[in-house]
Predict the structure of Thaumatin-like protein.
Amino acid sequence: MANPYSAVLKLTFIFLVIASAPELGGSSKSVTIVNYCKETVWPGITPSENFSGDGFTLKPGQSAVYTAPAGWSGRIWARTGCDFDKNGNGDCQTGGCGGNINCTGPGTPPSTIAEFTLGDGKPDFYDVSLVDGFNLPIAVKAVNGSGNCSTAGCDGDLRNNCPSQLTVKKNDKVIACRSACDVFNTDEYCCRGIYEDPAMCSSSNYSKIFKQVCPVAYSFARDDPTSVMTCTGADFIVTFCGSRNQTVCSYHGKQLLCNGSNSKGFKTKPDWWWVFLLLVAYVSKLCLS
Ligand SMILES: *[C@@H]1O[C@H](CO)[C@@H](O)[C@H](O)[C@H]1NC(C)=O
Ligand SMILES: *[C@@H]1O[C@H](CO)[C@@H](O)[C@H](O)[C@H]1NC(C)=O
Ligand SMILES: *[C@@H]1O[C@H](CO)[C@@H](O)[C@H](O)[C@H]1NC(C)=O
Ligand SMILES: *[C@@H]1O[C@H](CO)[C@@H](O)[C@H](O)[C@H]1NC(C)=O
Ligand SMILES: *[C@@H]1O[C@H](CO)[C@@H](O)[C@H](O)[C@H]1NC(C)=O
Ligand SMILES: *[C@@H]1O[C@H](CO)[C@@H](O)[C@H](O)[C@H]1NC(C)=O
Ligand SMILES: *[C@@H]1O[C@H](CO)[C@@H](O)[C@H](O)[C@H]1NC(C)=O
């Protein structure tokens, strides 16, 4: 996906730390969450040991690092179009999780979901799921892992290709794409009843459109199980509105790791500036703590 905002994004990259561990040790994982969207998102993260689900915003170009404890199983998704009052009460156009900035439950479909099951010393599993529909592109990249650590998720934005029967609109603009199961609620689309058997539940003309835009993602409940990755020792980067081939950076210990199709490069000034600003942000975090 061409991203006209990337130069600006890289210059405004801000480093937030949520649920920080003083040192990334043991088998806790750093999950860097980056907002490449043109709009603010409110990430949703399944609560864990040191993170109770408190809401926060990521403006365009901002990132946050979530430290997931060993063995964490959970989801990361984006809430969009939220409007919270000064007490933190309000609603989101998509992905809302209880009428508050702090999530009290999972997001309301339709929303794209990054799913993780972290092995404590064993391989980690991760995938992107469109089973609950789509609200924005998500890509999950594993950095410095071993095993099958392919990048999961999307190359484009399904809001631009959503079949008309599945669209969710706000002011004539498509803000999300519902799943065929959600809209038609048949056993066949939902993989229920006799279709519960993976051999019986096949892709539909709807799920195929989802799969075209997000090739490494679950496009329906019994989608090809190879959509889930099995990777050991990696840190993760979740991007909102990025694409799978994008160069991304994350932290592990005191090192900045970058990867992507251009990872040998960093030829252009904006890329260097981005790394530089990340380092400045990181060093200032070290100095403050
Ligand atoms: C990444 O993929 C998008 C869409 O598939 C394409 O437009 C873009 O040129 C690719 N970028 C790189 C660096 O390969
Ligand atoms: C949770 O916080 C405690 C106390 O600061 C820390 O010792 C522990 O490592 C943290 N756990 C994770 C997973 O960050
Ligand atoms: C959200 O959680 C944080 C920390 O637990 C708390 O300080 C804040 O008041 C909560 N916000 C709302 C709107 O409940
Ligand atoms: C990257 O992975 C290798 C082997 O998997 C490990 O030895 C190395 O320490 C890792 N690098 C960082 C910065 O974590
Ligand atoms: C980046 O990706 C390349 C190829 O995919 C891989 O060989 C390299 O080890 C990766 N580097 C890091 C730091 O993960
Ligand atoms: C999918 O197939 C159904 C029934 O076969 C048809 O009614 C519907 O229009 C098709 N939708 C798309 C987007 O092709
Ligand atoms: C890794 O997973 C992807 C997606 O499931 C699959 O296409 C690929 O063949 C796998 N690679 C290896 C080395 O297992």
About this structure: Helices lie at 6-11, 180-184, 187-190, 205-213, 269-288. DSSP finds five helices and 18 strands in the chain. The longest strand covers residues 73-80. Residues 1-2, 155, 243, 245, 261-262 surround 2-acetamido-2-deoxy-beta-D-glucopyranose (ligand 1) (CB under 6 Å).
